[in-house]
Amino acid sequence: MGSFICEYTGELIEDKDAERRTGEDEYLFDIGEEDGFTIDAARKGNIGRFINHSCSPNLYAQDVLYDHEDSSIPHVMFFAVDNIPPLQELSYDYNYRIDQVIDSNGNIKKKYCYCGSNECTGRLY
Ligand SMILES: C[S@@+](CC[C@H](N)C(=O)[O-])C[C@H]1O[C@@H](n2cnc3c(N)ncnc32)[C@H](O)[C@@H]1O
């Protein structure tokens, strides 16, 4: 429990540029507490980009500052929620707000969740 798994790495972009990437938003990770920056792992990234969402996740994402003090661009690190047996899929909660993801035409985007958990809410967003 609490074991470090990996970082979520990618291209550091401003939120306004992330909003323009609505058609290619699969690997966006909104960072920091305020509006500001997003990590986009679509073009560059590491193994963190392959971790799916679950409504009963076994990982959590934690902001980590270690090489600078700027809380608007924290590193995002995944840690284990519990002991994870071998071959169990790793997942975290993407933390989207339902009906808050908007496409370039201003329409609400919906993505159905296939995590398979008993507690699944049915939607990522
Ligand atoms: C960061 S990627 C995760 C890795 C991706 N599945 C892949 O094969 O490269 C995020 C995308 O994976 C898909 N995804 C992740 N978790 C999902 C879930 N629980 N249900 C449905 N799609 C999911 C969605 O398309 C989402 O935008």
TrEMBL record:
Protein name: Histone-lysine N-methyltransferase, H3 lysine-9 specific SUVH5
Entries under Pfam families matching the protein: SET
Keywords: Methyltransferase, S-adenosyl-L-methionine, Transferase
Domain Post-SET span(s) in chain numbering: 109-125
The organism's place on the tree of life at top rank: Eukaryota
Coiled-coil ranges per UniProt: none
Keyword S-adenosyl-L-methionine carried by entry: yes
All residue ranges annotated as the SET domain in the record: 1-95
GO terms under biological process: methylation
An MF annotation (GO) of this entry: methyltransferase activity
